[in-house]
Structures are given as structure tokens and as C-alpha cells.
Amino acid sequence: MFFRTQSFLEYLKNNYIDKTILIVSHAATIRAYILILWVLIKRQICCRLLLIMDKFLSMTFKGE
Predict the structure, then answer these.
(1) Residues of the chain with pLDDT under 70
(2) Domain of residue 56, residue span
(3) Three-point CA angle 32, 33, 39, nearest 5°
């Protein structure tokens, strides 16, 4: 991990013109990953809630 970050820093030093573009694109990629993960987690929670509600409703209607 250390060597990877070291080479990354050297790359930034060598290509100082592309530095800002690289950082901006990197931040955008991280933001996109976080957004995708958040949507997936939210969808999973909604699916679980719907399954629980479905089980609960089916149990209540079977009881009557």
C-alpha cells in the first residue's frame, strides 16, 4: 500500500499539469461509488421491509 501511494505521489509530481484534473476525477469517482452503494443499501433495506410487511400481512390475513 505504501509503495502504491508513493508511486502515485511521484506520478503527481511528474505530471503536475494533470494533477488537478486527476484529483477532481478521483473525487468524482469516489462520490459515484458512495452514491451507488447508498442506493443499493437503501434498495436492500426497502426490499427487506417489504418482505417483512408481506409476511406480516399474510399472517394477519391467514389468522382471520
Answers:
(1) 1-6, 8-9, 12-25, 62-64
(2) 2-63
(3) 90
